[in-house]
Amino acid sequence: MPIPITLAPVARPVALDGVELAASLSETARQIRIQDLTMVRHAGAGHIGGDFSAIDILTVLHGAVLDIAPDQADDPDRDRFILSKGHVAGAYYATLAAYGFLPVAQLATFLQPGTALGGHPDRQAVPAVEANTGPLGHGLPIGVGLAIAARLTERPYRVFVLVGDGELQEGSNWEAMITAAHHRLSNLTVIVDRNRLQQGARVEDTSGLEPLADKATAFGWQAITVDGHDHGQLVEVLSGPPMDGRPRFVIAETHKGHPISYMSDNVAWHHKVPDSDEFATALDELGAQVERIPT
Amino acid sequence: MSADVASLLATDVTPSQVADLSTTDCRGAWSATLAELAADDRSLVAVVNDSVGSSKLGDFVDRFPGQVVNVGIAEQTMVGVAAGLSGGGLTPFVSAASCFLTARAMEQIKADLVYSGRPVVLCGMSPGVAYGELGPTHHSLEDIAWLRALPGMTVVVPADPVETAAAIRWAHGHDGPAFVRVSRMPVPTLFRPDHAFEPGKANLLHAGNDVTVIANGTTVSVALQAAGLLADRGIGLRVLSMASVQPLDQEAVLAAATETGGIVTVEESTVRGGLGGAVAELVVSHRPAPMRMLGINHYDHPDSAEGLIAGAGLTPLGIADAAAALIDR
User: What CATH number is attached to the domain comprising B46?
Assistant: First the structure.
């Protein structure tokens, strides 16, 4: 069976703010989760756990923060977003489709032979993608280069990089953090999807990162901790101007698999595919009209 | 030599003249060319890993301080940053010791540059065994093989300062990833001042139809000297300079396989995946011919660069003997 399309594109809620904006983003994130879950269920693969920890961040960035537009993908002044944790490509594609960067119908090709929508994003195949990520620890150095380029070319764009917390075990991130602080890249924001789980176990039980905020601060960054599932908080922090000449290190506290009861904070759901019953339960918990989506 | 043959040659230097030529390091020509390009192209940015001195970029930094990004000793970040600079509309030339640039940042070269379609130029400084006594950690014998494995990566191993400058000028206008090996070993200048680099094109340095030597980088002038030794033995050696390891000049290689008794490849790198491997892959699938592949395939005890090169048989006599043996003479 082809992958069902449940998502309808929405306009960016540019006229809204405050509670109304958060409510709009929350509803879009819910729709993105339903679509992404359906893609993983019907493609038989994907990284649902990390998808669901990152979807609120992706939604806020694309719905309310990034100065990018589907018809201005080559604008040299566009904000740059790099999904360094490239394995949550399904969540990224659904987010791009929700806000008009991809036709929603194209989501039916997710992981299908010859698709543009593979397991990791390809900038030459998918609009708005700035780097082909997948191997961990690549996005932040690229983001540092983009931020330095903005400085050298006197362009106003901002750079946002979403990394996983387990990904921070890669040393290249810490190289790039030294470089970013040295260059005082206040146009650079890294968002850590701090779901505390990596593929095989809890991050803190594998090669722990704490005290993470203190480490970022010691590296010369401005560290901010937010609830990574709170759209209002994310909008406020990510839209805000930098407070000083430092790059920003936003620790978004999340749960893998959020908000599905049996997935949330459960290491088993890194890249597990829900069976028919699990799919129905998750749809129900997401408030989807279960009877309209084939299981 | 007839005037007709001479007109086909890319050099005015004859085998007997090579030993008397003065020699220079290619890095000076590299940095001078980069400065010449940077003066006209403000988007050109040199990206380095604390390698300003070893890349001979001191003057460049003084003249174009806004066109240098020094990330410190961090090769993965250096290449990732170069990808980002490219994404920001700039034209990065990454310059670092070839051993560290290629080995340490290989995944960034693969994913951030080649697979992501970012036209960044990588300049591998002091490759091969140039670091001599510093030992195998600092030698770069594998760089050509690694970079050649990447689809769409142009791999250039210039033979002298003129060809180094020509390769950098070409790379500046190339819309794709490229790797240029920049030797610190002093070499004689063989090419004429107006020499242009063209990917996929070999240059004929000595005409001959008995056997062929295909060389690049520091071994080209040595191969030319071997042609003199073989001429004394009555053997006509064809000497092809193959700066463009990828893409290879298929026509020139297959012509050599057909028209001469065999091919010897010579390079200051491992033959496994290097120039030797590239030529062998082509020859074996299209026109099988006898081959010998000379290079440096093992990690030796510390020695001077000259000692290591001689020890590997990359000498005029070593090349001449290998070529003669190939055709049983």
Answer: 3.40.50.970
